[in-house]
Design goal:
The protein is mainly α. It has helices at about 20-50, 60-65, 70-95, 100-130.
Length: about 150
């Protein structure tokens, strides 16, 4: 009777698990590059390409811009990426500096909830903003709004 003893370095195949830290690291790099493009595009379109620069930005300007689906999706992508990027960065800081597991978990849950709430509210505002509110001063609304 022969008995084979496995090598001590042989491991049984473990269940495949997702490495969330790796994916968080990759997300931070990819979203950071995309955010640079989105932020500078946002600043260029609002401050340089707009006649009058920062002084031309008012409710009518924002309402007119958000009436265009291209700018709606641009701003929503900017909002989502920035909030998730920031929340993930804060999660990393909590992992590094908060030593009590209960406190760390509470702070991370609060971070997640606040980011989710801001994403929800910001997305709602971008897609439901009425650029032509009833009874508004015609000099303040977008140029394409009918005069009441």
């Amino acid at each position: 009777m022969t008995t084979t003893i496995e090598s001590p370095r042989t491991q049984t195949p473990a269940k495949k698990r997702t490495n969330w830290e790796k994916w968080g690291w990759i997300y931070m790099r990819a979203s950071g590059v995309l955010l640079v493009v989105l932020v500078f595009g946002h600043l260029f379109s609002n401050l340089i390409a707009t006649p009058g620069g920062v002084h031309a930005i008012d409710f009518g300007f924002v309402g007119g811009k958000l009436a265009n689906p291209f700018w709606q999706w641009w701003d929503v992508l900017l909002l989502w990426l920035a909030l998730i990027h920031g929340a993930n960065g804060m999660r990393t800081i909590v992992n590094d500096y908060v030593s009590k597991p209960g406190v760390a978990k509470t702070v991370k849950v609060l971070l997640f909830l606040s980011a989710a709430l801001l994403i929800l509210l910001g997305t709602l505002v971008v897609f439901t903003l009425d650029p032509c509110p009833a009874g508004a001063d015609p000099s303040l609304v977008a140029s394409f709004c009918p005069v009441n």
